[in-house]
């Protein structure tokens, strides 16, 4: 694969360096299953070197910048990202198997994060607090120092954007551990950051293996904060590792997010959203709406209408830019298929599927989108995050039952409510266990401005929007006595 930087190196302290033990990992193209290159595999020593480089940047040129100067660098980087849209799109298509237009949308989202936080950098400030007559009290928002960012493979650019960019705006120096299967656009981010003029060490990218580079980073004594996006199990390990040094963490974990459709909803508007919200990125989306709860009066009609959308969907290589691309890996495909086999064995009924096109290469990790009914809400298909192109439809009779079903998993990330009844809308907003609730919509096209995060097994802390900046800073209270 032709890239303007050496993919097999790590980006540490403003330089491309090989891993200390010379090891690399293969880059697999999920559309073909073929190996198309190699990335570096950061060792524990490399992670240590990246943290040291970040500390040096904080004590040097990066730490000396004003907030508006940091904003200007982010703004320059935003423009550079947009100017390299085609390169970044190609990398993501080859590395992650995203259909071209979805990969391109991720580039635009990354640029938008940079633009948003460029503007926010010099608008983050403390407060003055009225206190005793002979005191002046104020608060300072200070960066944590070196922040760690551990990124999954499903939206490398978007998740790096929301995790890393806010931290930089707030004045932290960052060390990023992208996912093994999807590191190329993170490396490209390092490459572009140099062109934007970021001081050496402000941004460090150390691809590698989770249990090695990721574990070293999250348990490192010199970091001030960990922002993790990924699975529940790894999130718990990260929080435990960080706890050894009392380091705060943000956990963006999985979900089993419902959309609740009442019989008074605008069905024509809802239908395409119900499906798209579940199948975007072949269902490999933390906020995927994998459960559709439908009032029994309209249940059969909705299932039939969703089925006809499913039957039009085509799956194929990312370069063909169809509705769905492949899953990320053979492992992920096997995981999804096992889940579905088990569900069918316990009575779940597959009512519609999409189609894998004939041109799809043999070695690609394709799974056709599948819609299920007759699923017991307590069964794994309705409880666990499948992370594949699968939705279940569950009927309900009463509003109270809908809420109980919606809240009936360990997760609480996103929920959608489709009804024209304003009283019901606001009742449900308060009752639903979720970090984001959409009324008569779902997802709002990503919404860089909208605080995002979960509750329960979906994690804690908020990223995106201005709110994220509070998480990427620590508060200092200053009480000045007048004497
Ligand atoms: P994952 O297995 O948890 O991995 C996420 C990241 O953690 C990867 O970079 C991984 O490295 C690293 N890692 C693995 N073990 C580690 C350890 N012991 N210590 C430190 N780091 C470690 O998740 P995934 O399968 O890549 O991604 C899918 C999951 O992410 C889903 O559960 C999904 O819901 C969740 N997700 C959540 C959000 C959200 O905002 N709430 C967004 C997107 C995805 P390797 O690549 O080497 O394994
Ligand atoms: Mg790959």
Helices and strands, with pairings:
Elements: E1 10-12, E2 15-17, E3 24-29, E4 34-40, H1 44-59, H2 61-64, H3 67-83, H4 85-96, H5 100-120, E5 128-129, E6 135-143, E7 146-150, H6 156-169, E8 173-177, H7 184-196, E9 203-205, H8 210-218, E10 225-229, H9 232-243, E11 249-252, E12 258-261, H10 267-279, E13 291-295, H11 296-312, E14 314-315, H12 330-345, E15 349-353, E16 355-356, E17 370-373, H13 380-383, E18 390-396, H14 399-406, E19 414-418, H15 422-431, E20 436-439, E21 459-460, H16 467-471, E22 473-481
Parallel strand pairs: 7-8, 7-10, 8-9, 10-11, 12-13, 12-19, 13-18, 14-16, 17-18, 19-20
Antiparallel strand pairs: 1-2, 3-4, 5-6, 6-22, 11-21, 15-17
Helix pairs in contact: 1-8, 3-5, 3-7, 4-5, 5-6, 10-11
The structure holds NADP nicotinamide-adenine-dinucleotide phosphate and magnesium ion.
């Amino acid at each position: 694969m032709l890239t303007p930087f050496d993919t097999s190196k790590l980006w540490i302290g403003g330089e491309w360096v090989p891993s200390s033990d010379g090891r690399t990992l293969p880059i697999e193209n999920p559309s073909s299953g073929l190996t198309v290159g190699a990335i570096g595999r950061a060792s524990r020593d490399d992670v240590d070197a990246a943290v040291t480089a970040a500390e040096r940047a904080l004590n040097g040129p990066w730490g000396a910048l004003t907030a508006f100067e940091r904003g200007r660098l982010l703004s320059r980087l935003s423009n550079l990202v947009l100017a390299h849209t085609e390169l970044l799109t190609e990398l993501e298509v080859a590395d992650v198997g995203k259909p071209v237009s979805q990969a391109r949308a991720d580039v635009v989202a990354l640029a938008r994060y940079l633009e948003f936080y460029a503007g926010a950098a010099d608008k983050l400030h403390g407060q003055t607090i009225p206190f005793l007559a002979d005191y002046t009290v104020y608060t300072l928002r200070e960066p944590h120092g070196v922040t760690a960012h551990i990124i999954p493979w499903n939206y490398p650019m978007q998740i790096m954007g929301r995790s890393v960019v806010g931290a930089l705006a707030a004045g932290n120096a960052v060390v990023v551990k992208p996912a093994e299967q999807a590191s190329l656009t993170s490396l490209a981010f390092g490459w572009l950051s140099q062109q934007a003029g970021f001081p050496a060490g402000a941004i460090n990218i150390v691809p590698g293996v989770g249990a090695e580079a990721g574990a070293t980073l999250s348990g490192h004594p010199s970091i001030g904060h960990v922002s993790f996006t990924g699975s529940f199990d790894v999130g718990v390990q990260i929080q435990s590792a960080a706890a050894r040094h009392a380091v705060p963490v943000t956990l963006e974990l999985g979900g089993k997010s419902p959309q609740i459709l009442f019989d008074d909803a605008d069905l024509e508007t809802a239908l395409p959203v119900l499906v798209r919200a579940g199948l975007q990125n072949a269902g490999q989306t933390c906020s995927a709406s994998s459960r559709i709860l439908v009032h029994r009066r309209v249940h059969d009609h909705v299932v039939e209408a969703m089925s006809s959308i499913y039957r039009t969907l085509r799956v194929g290589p990312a370069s063909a830019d169809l509705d769905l691309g492949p899953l990320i890996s053979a492992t992920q495909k096997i995981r999804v298929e096992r889940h579905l086999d088990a569900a069918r064995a316990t009575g779940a009924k597959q009512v519609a599927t999409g189609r894998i096109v004939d041109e799809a290469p043999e070695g690609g990790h394709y799974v056709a989108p599948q819609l299920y009914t007759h699923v017991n809400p307590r069964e794994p298909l309705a409880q666990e995050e499948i992370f594949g192109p699968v939705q279940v439809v569950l009927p309900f009779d009463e509003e109270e039952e809908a809420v109980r079903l919606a809240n009936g998993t360990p997760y609480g990330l996103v929920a959608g409510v489709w009804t024209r009844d304003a009283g019901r809308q606001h009742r449900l907003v308060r009752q639903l266990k979720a970090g984001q609730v959409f009324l008569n919509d779902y997802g709002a096209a990503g919404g860089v401005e909208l605080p995002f995060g979960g509750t329960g097994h979906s994690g804690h802390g908020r990223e995106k929007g201005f709110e994220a900046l509070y998480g990427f800073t620590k508060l200092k209270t200053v009480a000045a006595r007048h004497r």
